[in-house]
Amino acid sequence: METQQLQVEIRKNIGSLKARKNRKSGLIPAIMYGHKQENMMFLLNEKEFSAALNAEVKMVNLKWDSSEETALIKDVQFDTFGKKILHVDFVRTALTEKVTTHVHVVLYGIPQGVKEGGILDHALKEVEIECLPTEIPKNIRINISELAIGDTIHISDIELPVNTKVIGNPDAVVVSVHLATEEKETPEEETSSEPEIISARKPEKEEESKNKD
């Protein structure tokens, strides 16, 4: 698993107003906790962290002054539009202890069922796994080219790296191929119902006009 080094700045001033000012300056508020040690609050360079996130990095080496710690990216909070990073949580990690984290599920190949007119349903975009920090895969790739209409891949069917375990319901559906739902045609009698109602009202109006005369 790739580990990226990030230079951080210890955060001394706390508060929502200060946090907004830092974000405008390209700095992301963050916290690191775990191992029964004191929580540490600091600031990240937004561009550097975004690059690590886009590269699907999970483990980082946080450096400040003459100190350095290895940590796992635990949670990233975004704004309402999912674009601006608001806050990041890190958890201290020992390379010899197992951790839990989420990794993306990447599909490759064109299912046979799709070629025959079926629809692909990618229900689970990421899965939670448990393994050593040094063995966290960048993502989990699944070959779906052999999937026929009606076929399904569950969590229990995923092939994982050695010493890696999936956390969650083994029967949960990851991806499937099913028939396309046919659109219901409007019955002919329903389409002609409106003119029938209009024509039914005409005699009534004619009769009323005769009575008035």
Question: Can you describe what's shown?
Answer:
The protein has 213 residues and is α+β, with helices and mostly antiparallel strands. It folds into two domains: 3-93, Ribosomal Protein L25, Chain P (Beta Barrel), CATH 2.40.240.10; 101-178, Ribosomal protein L25, C-terminal domain (RNA Polymerase Alpha Subunit, Chain A, domain 2), CATH 2.170.120.20. It is 22% helix and 39% strand. The strands form three sheets. It has a six-stranded mixed beta barrel with strand order 1-3-2-6-5-4. It has a four-stranded mixed β-sheet with strand order 10-7-9-12, with no helix packed on it. The protein has a three-stranded antiparallel β-sheet with strand order 8-13-11, with no helix packed on it. The longest helix is centred in the last third of the chain and has 20 residues, at 193-212. It is elongated. The N and C termini lie far apart (94 Å).
Major β-sheet annotation: 6 strands, mixed, barrel
Arithmetic mean of pLDDT? 84
Q: What is the share of helical residues?
A: 10-25%
> How far is the N terminus from the C terminus?
94 Å
CATH homology-level superfamily of the largest domain:
Ribosomal Protein L25, Chain P
Number of domains: 2
Task: Provide a count of the helices.
Answer: 5
Low-confidence stretches: 189-205
Q: Remind me, CATH topology of the largest domain? A: Ribosomal Protein L25, Chain P
| Spatial shape | elongated
Helices and strands: which structural class?
alpha+beta
Radius of gyration: 29 Å
Record the strand order, biggest sheet.
Answer: 1-3-2-6-5-4
CATH C-level class of the largest domain: Mainly Beta
CATH architecture of the largest domain: Beta Barrel
β-strand number: 13
| Percentage of residues in DSSP E strands | 35-45%
> What string gives the helices and strands in order?
EHEEHEEEEHEEEEEEHH
